[in-house]
Amino acid sequence: MGQQVEFFWRIPTHGDGRSVSSKAWNRGDWKTATSHSIAPGNGDSWGYIDYMAMVAKACEVAGFDGALVPTSLPSDEPLMVAAALARETRTLRFMTAFQPGFITPAYAAKMGATLQRISGNRLEWNVITGGSAPAQRAYGDFLPHDDRYGRTGEWLEVIEGLWRGSPFDHQGERFQLEGGGLSTPLLHTRKPGVYFSGSSEAALAVAARHADFYLMWLEPLADMQAMMQRLNQMAQAQGRQLKYGLRVDIFARETEAEAWDEARRLWDKHDFSAPRKANPMTSVGGGDSVGAQRQAALRQEKSENFADYIIGPNLWSGLGLVRPGPTIGIVGSYQQVADRLTEYVRAGFSNFILAANPHLEEAIRIGEEVLPRIREQL
Ligand SMILES: Cc1cc2nc3c(=O)[nH]c(=O)nc-3n(C[C@H](O)[C@H](O)[C@H](O)COP(=O)(O)O)c2cc1C
What we know:
Blueprint: E1 6-10, H1 48-61, E2 66-69, H2 78-86, E3 93-98, H3 105-119, E4 123-127, H4 133-138, H5 145-162, E5 168-171, E6 176-180, E7 193-196, H6 201-210, E8 213-217, H7 221-236, E9 243-253, H8 256-269, H9 290-299, E10 310-312, E11 315-316, H10 319-322, E12 329-333, H11 334-346, E13 349-355, H12 359-369, H13 371-377
Parallel strand pairs: 1-2, 1-13, 2-3, 3-4, 4-7, 7-8, 8-9, 9-12, 9-13
Antiparallel strand pairs: 5-6, 10-11, 11-12
The structure holds flavin mononucleotide.
Flavin mononucleotide binds at residues 70-72, 97, 128-131, 197-200, 203, 215-217, 247, 281, 289-292.
Pfam families: Bac_luciferase (PF00296)
Protein name: LLM class flavin-dependent oxidoreductase
GO biological process, one term: alkanesulfonate catabolic process
């Protein structure tokens, strides 16, 4: 393989099943076991973490480098999930959602370094500044949108200082430390990589200054390239260089027709008459996420006609209508999906976070059928 590219899969911290609809999830998520659940019920020693461990192990067998551990209001806490999964796996890295506002940098560094020791340096941070104001307020965070990014920037600056060792002092606008800094053996761990997202101006400024990887949800290629160009210039002005990651849902089957059938199956099951539920990660429900607003604009709720949402070769923007989350998915034969993802590598992405329901079976499918085809083409 000529080019260094890392492939991550998503751990479904939010529940899982064959459908994207949470009503049909049957893998023993945090809800009381329902009649259709195929997992043991509450009260047994088996728990949802056992299912997440199966997904994590499937990722290893399937050749993924790592797994995203996302956070949302109802989900399990990602760092604790990652700690448990680290002991169930051997090689998988964990890109763990982490919200700087909620834990002081010194304590976060201690937690991060401890997890590096537990996992053999397999932790990366997916720094989440705030999906939306309502979700932040639910956690007791009332800072306005741009101030949240100001806090993230200073938090990351302190983190860098803490990994230089003790004594570390910091007198900033939001954080003050005296005689801080990690001491051995925590100091000798690898500082987790900083994966970063957010499409607002405030987010881009912090990304340019502190991120290792800037993550995007799939948008038309020209828009993503314009964003990369801007960020490259902003980072270069600071003597830095960014890498780029793409988070995208995949519908891959032997033939293109079968893959579209799978997307259509989700579409046909969706109840378009039901009001769209508030989703803390999107602009629905009064959120202030610029990234989510860009996704909503791409969805353009035009009709209930499936074909209206096919917006390019193997690109379907209907996904965001049938479940909360990013809007555009890639739909195609194994070879077509590999070709599309290879095009994104050529466009400058070197990290991919892929996902599909059910995460267990689809991790194996994508690992067997799609990843080798991409690796062969690089
Ligand atoms: C790849 C990716 C993963 C994300 N994961 C999460 C997540 O797990 N939880 C969350 O609340 N927000 C998540 N977000 C949202 C963003 O981090 C960001 O907070 C949000 O888009 C608001 O920022 P903005 O207004 O600058 O766009 C993710 C965004 C991207 C692109």
